[in-house]
Amino acid sequence: MVIPCGCAGDKVPHASHTTQKTAQMSSSAHDSQESSSEEGEPSAQVPPSRETTKRSSGKVRKDHIGQGAFVIEFKNPTAPRNMILSPVQPAGLNPSPSFEGKNRKNVENDYRGMERKGFRVTSDIGCLLPDDRFGTREAGATLKGHQRTFQFFAGWRPRGPESGQPAVVNSRGWPSNLEISHLCHRPNCCRIDHFVAEEKWRNQKRNYCGLNGQCDCGNPVKCLRPYQTVESAPSLCKTKAEVTAVLDGAPPFTMHAPDHYEARDKKAETRRKNIKDRKRKQEKHAYETARKQSRKHRGST
Which of 30, 126, 249, 295 has the most neighbouring CB atoms within 10 Å? Predict the structure, then answer.
């Protein structure tokens, strides 16, 4: 954040005035604390805090289904999916270690947590659009939808250069660190067969594809549709039959009813409520204990 400097005509308080004002504020705060102590009340007499209400997974899913999302569950991959589709070996090929064991379970949880919120499905080429919190251009989840999808199906994820390490470049000096390219040109899409792992310079070339209405970026792996800088809201599938048709060629999946995870949601809500109630009781107990000790101290003086 840039803080503007004071101009010549601005009035800047003298340092002594600032120090005096700070001392007065500090003195007032000290007097207030002493007054509270003389009355025998605890110094931090603040009632137990109330947590900010957050949307539950069930509420998020319900809202997303209201926007046209379908509950789609993909089967666990039997083997890591090959994402290096170019016949030319990438200069920046240095995939992260495979996710195995506990890490693999965390990867699956990350993906399933997003998947259970449902996907909107575009009617043109079957892009899977997750809840907005997983979008690349929206504030929300730190690990975005395309990253969760890639590591779930591929078992690794392209990363930039380590801190302090130089970026990978090819013989021409072009940036060659691996990135996740969207062949559909929809950055929020979470369909794994719409992705390819390729060098950064190839990914950037796709931003200038489709001038003549077809893929003309020159990459060995062709785009699925022309690039569009500004795109209006895509047309979405409205029936299961439409979804099944446009997802032809995608990994095996099952379509569930909108209330498929209702029992799971109720268990999670009960567990969340029990945790909140227990925390609230602990806060109340600590608060009452502080009051009793304060009254006892007042009675002994």
Answer: 126
Task: Specify the long-range contacts of residues 54-63, CB closer than 8 Å, at least 24 apart.
Answer: 56/265, 56/268, 56/269, 56/272, 57/113, 57/116, 57/117, 57/261, 57/265, 57/268, 58/261, 58/262, 58/265, 58/268, 58/269, 60/117, 60/131, 60/133, 61/116, 61/117, 61/118, 61/261, 61/265
Question: What pLDDT score does 175 carry?
Answer: 92
Residue 278: in which H helix or E strand, if any?
Answer: helix 262-300
Question: What's the chain's Rg over C-alpha atoms?
Answer: 28
The count of domains in the chain is 2
Lookup: tokens for 66: 């209201």
Q: Is 268 helix (H, G, I), strand (E, B) or coil?
A: helix
Residue 203 belongs to some domain of the structure: yes
What gap in Å lies between CA 16 and CA 295, rounded to an integer?
A: 42
- Rounded to 10 deg, the angle between the 57-66 and 262-300 helix axes is 140
Is 20 part of a structural domain of the chain? Answer: no
Within 10 angstroms of residue 100's Cβ, the number of other Cβ atoms is 10
Residue 227 lies in a domain: yes
Q: Is the pTM of this model over 0.70?
A: yes
The pLDDT of residue 53 is 58
Per DSSP (E only), the strands in the chain are 71-74, 120-121, 128-129, 178-182, 195-199, 253-256
pLDDT < 70: residue spans in the chain: 1-53, 92-97, 301
- Residues 282, 296 within the same domain: yes
| Selection from 235, 238, 188 nearest residue 70 by Cα | 238
**Whole-angstrom distance, CA of residue 257 vs CA of residue 260:** 5
Range of the domain at 78: 57-260
> What pLDDT shows up at residue 19?
46
